């Protein structure tokens, strides 16, 4: 009997109409916040992922010192071609100290040329080189630089300590030492890891907003019908409160599952799942966590903490709106919950567990609010 009541209450909370509204809001939310982090086009993001994936297919998820030496011996050399020859023979480039494409690609960043000069030289190069030649050259240069970066970083990070953090306390140093026993040899692309942090930030915030959106109008509508007052005048009717509470919990769980499914689709497109079993504290990620997590474990814990915090806020909102029959008053209460959800899931939770931050505050905050 009670399960039937819970089911009927759930249908009021997660109605088809509200699900359609939430889907429409997600489309807008995706276009405004998530779309820039969905890496569907060919770019350096995928070139880096391809490079690390090729290492994993050959050596596994960890690169031992012996394997590194073998890999290092196969590091590609910079290839000079007709583009480099054109630059070396053109006065507009050489008078600025630019003698090859690698010099040119770094010239603006190193302050050798102004923005106007950089634009002019790029136009000259595109006019002088066959179509598609510059793009291919840029791709080969970026891959060459990635090789150099990963080789140099491996040697520095596996030598002991870390170059990513300074002024570490004893607990942090102990964690660095623990990481050096194996996690540091992991292979995970820096771009994939940090892009995933941003996606999780916005997905967590959307999860909280979705739960609050479903919960807020629920009891206000019930109170406006005056049914709760009538029900609570009988002992049997007072048990409906527990059924409503269970319905809110189950509805929040449903929203969490739906949002996690949306995240999973993005994670596949962003190739996060290809590095699911790689250490998130690898030498290549510039991120060291307090815990020996893989990329997949970190992601799951992030979503669980976001779900716990969001569910806790929704239960608080349910408790408050249980006594309200005005949507205006309910919205005023909901706004404070929205601010809390965006602050925690969108900022505090992002890249949680890093050794530069506290070890327990974020997980405990999620558990406490629930």
Distance between the termini: 27 Å
Query: Which runs of at least 5 residues are low in confidence (pLDDT < 50)?
Result: none
Average per-residue pLDDT, rounded, comes to 86
Large-scale geometry: elongated
Order of helices and strands: HHHHHHHHHHHHHHHHH
Amount of beta strand:
under 5%
State the share of residues found in helices, binned by percent: 55-70%
Main pleated-sheet profile: none
Radius of gyration: 27 Å
Number of DSSP helical runs: 17
Strand pairing plus helix content: what structural class?
mainly alpha
E-strand count: 0
Provide a descriptive summary of the structure in words:
- 69% of the residues lie in helices and 0% in strands.
- It contains 17 helices and no strands.
- The chain has helices at residues 2-13, 16-34, 44-59, 65-72, 82-88, 91-94, 101-107, 115-128, 133-157, 170-179, 190-224, 227-231, 235-238, 240-269, 295-321, 327-348, 361-369.
- It is elongated.
- It starts with a helix and ends with a helix.
């Amino acid at each position: 009997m009670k399960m039937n009541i819970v089911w009927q209450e759930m249908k009021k909370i997660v109605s088809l109409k509200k699900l359609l509204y939430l889907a429409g809001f997600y489309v807008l939310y995706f276009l405004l916040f998530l779309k820039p982090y969905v890496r569907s086009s060919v770019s350096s993001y995928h070139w880096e992922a391809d490079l690390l994936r090729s290492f994993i297919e050959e050596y596994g998820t960890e690169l031992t010192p012996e394997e590194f030496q073998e890999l290092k011996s196969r590091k590609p050399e910079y290839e000079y071609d007709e583009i480099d020859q054109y630059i070396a023979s053109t006065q507009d480039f050489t008078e600025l100290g630019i003698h090859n494409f690698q010099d040119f690609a770094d010239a603006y960043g190193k302050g050798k040329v102004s923005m106007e000069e950089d634009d002019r030289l790029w136009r000259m190069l595109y006019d002088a080189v066959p179509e598609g030649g510059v793009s291919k050259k840029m791709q080969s240069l970026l891959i060459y630089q990635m090789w150099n970066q990963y080789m140099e970083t491996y040697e520095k990070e596996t030598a002991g300590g870390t170059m990513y953090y300074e002024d570490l306390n004893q607990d942090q140093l102990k964690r660095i030492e623990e990481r050096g026993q194996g996690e540091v040899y992991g292979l995970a692309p820096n771009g994939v890891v940090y892009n995933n942090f941003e996606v999780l930030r916005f997905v967590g915030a959307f999860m909280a907003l979705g739960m609050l959106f479903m919960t807020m109008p629920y009891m206000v509508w019930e109170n406006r019908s005056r049914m709760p007052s009538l029900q609570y005048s009988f002992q049997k009717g007072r048990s409906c409160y527990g059924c409503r509470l269970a319905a809110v919990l189950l509805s929040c769980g449903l929203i969490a599952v739906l949002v996690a499914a949306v995240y999973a689709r993005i994670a596949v497109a962003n190739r996060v799942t290809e590095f699911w079993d790689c250490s998130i504290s690898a030498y290549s990620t510039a991120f060291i966590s307090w815990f020996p997590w893989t990329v997949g474990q970190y992601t799951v814990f992030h979503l669980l903490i976001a779900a716990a915090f969001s569910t806790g806020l929704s239960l608080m909102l349910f408790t408050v709106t249980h006594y309200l029959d005005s949507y205006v008053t309910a919205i005023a209460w909901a706004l404070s919950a929205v601010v809390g959800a965006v602050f925690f899931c969108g900022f505090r939770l992002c890249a949680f567990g890093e050794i530069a931050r506290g070890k327990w505050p974020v997980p405990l905050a999620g558990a406490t609010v629930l």
